[in-house]
Write a structure and sequence with these properties.
mainly beta; about 0% helix; about 40% strand
C-alpha cells in the first residue's frame, strides 16, 4: 500500500502521548505534540516492546521505551540512549483539516505542521 492513510482526528490524540495504530501490516506510534504529529515504528529496536506507552519528552522531542528506558528521537528515529543502538523507522505525517494523515509508502524522517486545504 502506498499513499496517505487517515488514522484519526488530531483532537482524538492525547497531547504528549503516543497512540498505537496498525497500518499496512506495520505497527506505528503516532505522537502528538501540540499541533504537530510524529510517527515512528511502535517497537523498540532493543526488545520487542511497544513504544506507545513510553514517556514522551516534548522539549527533547523523544519517546522512551517503557521497559529499559532507551530514548528515541521522534524526528529521526535515532536511538539516543542505551541499551538500544539501532534506530526505529519514522514516517511522514501531516494534519489536514484536523485529520492526521500518514504516508505509508516508505519509511522516512518527516513531520508536518497542520495544513488547511484550499
Amino acid at each position: 500500500m502506498t499513499g496517505s492513510v487517515d488514522v484519526a482526528a488530531l483532537d482524538d490524540l492525547v497531547d504528549g502521548e503516543g497512540t498505537a495504530f496498525e497500518l499496512d501490516g506495520r505497527r506505528v506510534s503516532v505522537v502528538r505534540l501540540g499541533d504537530r504529529v510524529y510517527v515512528v515504528g511502535d517497537t523498540c529496536s532493543h526488545e520487542k516492546v511497544s513504544l506507545s506507552g513510553g514517556i514522551v519528552d516534548e522539549d527533547a522531542c523523544t519517546i522512551e521505551c517503557p521497559k529499559h528506558g532507551s530514548e528515541f528521537d521522534l524526528r529521526t528515529g535515532e536511538a539516543l540512549t542505551l541499551p538500544a543502538i539501532r534506530p526505529i523507522p519514522t514516517y511522514a505525517a501531516r494534519v489536514l483539516d484536523g485529520r492526521v494523515l500518514i504516508d505509508v509508502g516508505a519509511e522516512n524522517d518527516h513531520t508536518s505542521a497542520p495544513e488547511v486545504s484550499p
